[in-house]
Every structure is written in C-alpha cells, then in structure tokens.
Design goal:
With 553 residues, this protein is α/β, with parallel strands linked by helices. 36% of the residues lie in helices and 12% in strands.
Length: 553
Amino acid sequence: MSKRLSKLTLLAAAVTLIAAGCSSNNGNNGNGSNTGNKESGTNAAANNGSTSNGANASKNANTGTDGNAAAADTAQPEKLDQVSLKLILPGDKPQRYDEVMKALNEKLTDKIQATLSIQYIPWDSYKDQILVKLAAGEDFDFFYDGWWQNYAQVLSKNGAMDITDLFEKDAPDLYNGLTADYIDTNKYNGKIYGIPVPGPLEYPQVYTYRADLADKYGFTADSFKSIDDITAFTKKVMAADKTRIGGRFNGEYTGSYQSIAFLGTQREFIPSNDFNSPGMLLNNEPKVINQFESQQYKDYLKWAKMNWDEGLVDRDSLFSKSTVTTDANTDVSTIGGIGNAPEGWLGDRSEALSKIEAGARVDAVFMEKGTKMVSSFKAGNFTVLSPSSKNPDRVLKFLNLIYADKEIRDMYLYGIEGKDFIAVGDDQYKYPDGLDATKTFNNQWWMVTPWKNTRLSANATETDKSSIAYITDPNNFVKSVIAGFEFNPDAVKSEISKVSAVVAEYRKILESGSGTQAQQDSKYAEFLAKLKKAGVDNIIAEKQRQIDAFLKK
C-alpha cells in the first residue's frame, strides 16, 4: 500500500468498511489486499497501502497465466538431494497450517526434492526481527521484504543474496514471466537481489460506501465527487437513522492524513509509504517539503476536527481494541470510508455484512479518477534469499513452481481444495460453506507471486474488476521525476529516529480531531516545535541534497 493511503469516509479515522489492503488479509479474501504497506492495516478508513508494486502488472490481474505449467507437469523431474527450506513471513500463522504443509511438502518432495517450513512473525516486530536474524547469521533460506518495510536497510547491510547468475537458470518460467525490462528496473547496483512481485502501480483513493443506504436515500456513485459530497451523504443518513455513524476508529488506527490531506494531488512520500517520515514531493516536482507544515495538512486537521465536533465519527472508538479485519466484516453501522482502491474484496465484504444485516451491500467510487498519480514503476514487494541459505537453487526452483504450477500455487496460497477453498474456473475461488478466511489456510499472493497468477474471489463485483484493471494499467500513471531514486538515511539516522517518535506521538490525537479547538491548536504547535528540536530540517535538507545529486547524474 498502494504501497496505498486510505482516506476515511467521514472520519479522518478509520472506517471499518474499507479496510482494503491490509496486511492481515482483511478477514475475507485469501488473496490479501495489502500489496504494500502495513499502515494500510492501521485503520479501516485510512487504509494506506500505497506501494508502487510493479510496472509490469497485468491489466487483468486474474488472467491465470501459468507459463509452462503443462510442460512442468509432463517433464521428468530432476532428481536432487532432499533438502529442507525455511521461509520467514510477516503475520500470524494461518489456520490448518500443519495439514496443508504436509500435503504441499509431499508435492514439493516429488517435484524438487524439498520440503518447506514457514515461520510467521507478527507484523509489529517483523522489520526488526528480520534485521536481527540476518545480523546473527541465522539459518533460514528466504523471506518477504519490501521498500515500505526495510528492504533498503537489508540491501545496505548485505542482507540479501546476489542471485544474478542463478535466477534465470533455476527459475526460468518466473524470470521470463517478469520480462527483462522489469527485472532491470528492480536491480540494485546492477545486480539482482530480491525477486520483484508485480502488483498495483499505485493506489488511487476511493470512497467505499454502503450502496444499499445510498439507494435508500437517493444517492448514486455519481453523487460522490468530493469530500463535501461524502459529508452530505453521511449527514443525511445519520439524520434519518440514528443507528448509523459516518466513521469509526479501531485498535490499529494511528492517523490517516496521507489519505485525505493530499487527495487529488500528485504526491510522493520519501521513503515511499513511510508516513511518519517528513519529506515528500508534490506535483511531480523535485522540491522536498515537510508535509506536516503544509497547508494541506492544516486543512486536513480542520476537516478531522469538524467530523469530531459534529459527531460524524464514533468518538468512543478512538481507543477501541478492534481490528481492521474484524470491523471490515462485522460493522454494519458505519456508512463508508475513504481508502485504497478495491482489489477483489467488495463482494466478499457485502456477503459478510449481509449475514448480519439483510441487504447490506458495499460499493466503491474513485475519488481521483482525473488525477494521474505518480508511480516509480518499480515493485514494492520482494522475495529475498538470505545470504545464509545453503540451497538457493532449490529456493528458486520452489518460486518457479509457485509461478508456473497452478496446483502448487493454489495449495500454497489457498490451502487444500475442498477444505480451504473451492476453485471456480481457472482464476476464481470461493470458500466451502460455513468457512471464511479466518477459518481456512491462506498465504498472501503479494509476498511471492505476480498478481496476474492469483485467483479472484468468485464474489468479486464489476467494480472490483474495473478497479484492478485501472490500478494495473501503466497508462493511468505518470512516471516519477525521481524514478530509480532511493533515499539513504545514514547521514540523518539519529534525527530520523527522534522525528519518527515525535510523529508517532502526535499523529493519532491530532488526526482524530479529538479535544477542543484550543487543545488541538496547542498540540499542533507542540508537534511542530518538537519536530524542529528533533532535527526535521536536517532530514528535509538531506533528502533534497540526495535528490539533487541523483538528478544531476
């Protein structure tokens, strides 16, 4: 998320309906929708996932491309020594892990003489734990990482194996499927380290709303062209039905400025999707600004205050312990929210909510259709081989199977057919009766394989499909003026640490709109003063210096 930054519906907070793109699978779609950024799971209304996930993404993310799958099935497998591979992923261990892995390993043993085990590390400690494991030389073979995580640090610390001479040889279907141009775009110092995972190019923001309520009160998708339109809808529904609320916070909410403040602009955060890091570009111009001092941020805080003061957001939910996933599939009182474009989950969400409130239905409308967002046309997510891996060839053979062999891919992503999922044609799936993503095995596609090879929920709506087509079409995006640039934080590490702590301390309260106006004004003044003291100006200057040097080359 998209590498993606959500907005809220009426709350600058976190509308439960739109927890699209969260890293934890959102409770209803085994495909997962967080192609990029954990903050996309920080609040349902501000779903931040904006990760530039790849220039090579297919215009139809569900074509079910299988490469040489048929050839893979008929060719005689090369007999190798049996090995065990260890993969590390962020998130929680999925349901039915042991049974699914046993079945998967039987197939992997037959095809590449390998077995796989996966260690799952909670999201909140994943970045740190990966660096610790790499520094200690811990014995594991490969792991997920992304620019929005700590991939730059991993590369700078020699935490990724150079697979330049191995990739095409040991994973030919995957290599050829990515195309040489895409691979070249994602090299580091001319070498191939992480294997890029194509997905959305960026995440334009949408308003995800209760379509059944819109119908009831005389609104259509065409009614929603601005934040003011959304506010008018919310107020009308709430006036007529006291059980409804414009938006709600949840236990993962940390703020949502990035999805609202710069809506409709060409915006680029540096580093991409680090929203606690001051320093961004606007209008695709190489001028670094401190977004927290911008007029757009100040206007956003006023909007958030309005929502709080007028009761358009559930004030009691500011300290809620609920999750994005839970709220997205159980909250029938929230009217809507602004967040990342849907990736196939609208139908699933409607199905889940309609079981609680008959007729409940969600739809989404693009709020930035006329804006060509900036994209680096690079991947945001990577599969990385650890320097400690003793079997890099077998890791690559496994990844090649995930790409080229539909049976292996389906089992790795969705579990055992009939027990965890039911295949619907070549490119869709549904859950067995009485089951959903919380009760079945699933892994996230965006950590391991191109979007075009995944299955889409059989419940996916036409809006889902058109959204996927839009966010994977390069024609809908503008190439960043600093495409290829990666910020090196070494010169301002101390300042970044101090500034990030300040931002994390103030964002939630400021961006919720809570308290009196005097309290908000005081907090905002304190915020800016502490940023200055922590060294924010040095960070901005260093980012500008590096960008200027990059553009001179």
